[in-house]
Amino acid sequence: MDTSELEAKVRQRGLPKHIGVIMDGNGRWAEARGEDRLVGHREGSTSVREVTRCARRLGVQALTLYAFSSQNWSRPPEEVAGLMDLLREYLLKEREEILGNQIRLNAIGELDRLPRYVKEPLDELRAVSAHHTGMTLTLALSYGGKEELLAATRALMARAVAGTLAPDRLTEELFEQHLWTKGLPPVDLVVRTSGERRLSNFLLWQSAYAELHFTDTHWPDFRAQQLCEAILAYQHRERRFGLTGAQLRRAGT
Ligand code: FPP
Q1: What is the pLDDT at residue 248?
Q2: 83 CA → ligand 1 middle, Å
Q3: Which residues are part of the catalytic machinery?
Q4: Are 15 and 22 within 8 A, CB to CB?
Q5: Which atom of ligand 1 is nearest to the CA of 79?
Q6: Residue 139 near ligand 1, beta carbon < 6 Å
Q7: Which of 48, 61, 154, 238 has its CA 20 to 30 A from that of 12?
């Protein structure tokens, strides 16, 4: 089946509102070809473009890509620098396409740790696309789920200490208001490429009820076709949210 036929098939059933992707395997993809790891990251940024285009065409509301984790700062300095260069290049090159397609560019993570030459184009694109309603594309940059939960907890504790929040007034909704993903829908589907089967500190709170899709395909080979396949697999799952299958059928969901 070609990609347009797959996309038509995906459209026949409910779409995940929010897809999170752990883009893994750039290094292995490059090493298997005798190339530098950065060649894999570069090819991976082409996958970012293709997957974003496809998600937008399909009408996905939110796509969150794990582009650089808090822990990735400990990689060799030349790889970190290469990734930062690629991010800058991506932000400059994709600007027109993002604006032309009504995409809202968003970012989560400890963004102040990013170098100025990345932070500036990132902030600019976030600001000019802030009113867009087409799809929210979130780049998780210098991101860690535990770091995010700690930041939220710190902010809430500060309010408690200041006497403006009583502990028994803390609800899930209020907690979510303090997460970096504030305003985004819960994650329905997490995709991880390249054979590993773990979350690696990605959207720990937000993916509480997400369906998980693992594929052996390395990220540079993950394109529109593979995204459609992941969504089709998701569409055949029964999401129970703690209820029984019989309860769900009675409720007609
Ligand atoms: C994981 O593969 C991937 C990363 C740490 C970086 C992801 C970056 C990109 C896809 C390109 C730049 C991003 C954007 C948004 C333009 P890995 O290096 O851990 O692979 P390995 O496990 O095979 O070593």
Answers
A1: 84
A2: 8
A3: 24, 72
A4: no
A5: 18
A6: yes
A7: 48
User: pLDDT at position 253, please?
Assistant: 59
Percent of the chain residues topping a pLDDT of 90: 93
Mean pLDDT within 113-117:
98
* CB of 43 shorter than 6 A to ligand 1: no
Which of 21, 26, 198 gets mutated to test ligand 1 (max ligand atoms within 8 A of its CB)?
26
Distance 253 CA to ligand 1 centre (A): 37
Average pLDDT over residues 41-56: 98
Q: Which residues of 57-87 are buried (b: 16+ CB within 10 A; e: fewer)?
A: bbebbbbbbbbbbbebeebeeeeeebbbbbb
In the structure encoding, which two tokens stand for residue 60, read together? 């996905």
pLDDT at 252 over 80: no
For residue 220, which atom of ligand 1 is closest to its CA?
10
Ligand 1: centre distance to CA 44 (Å) = 7
Per-residue model confidence as pLDDT tens digits over 195-235: 999 999 999 999 999 999 999 999 999 999 999 999 999 99
Q: Find the 135 Cα to ligand 1 centroid distance in Å.
A: 22
Domains identified in the chain and CATH numbers: 3-7+15-143+185-251 (3.40.1180.10)
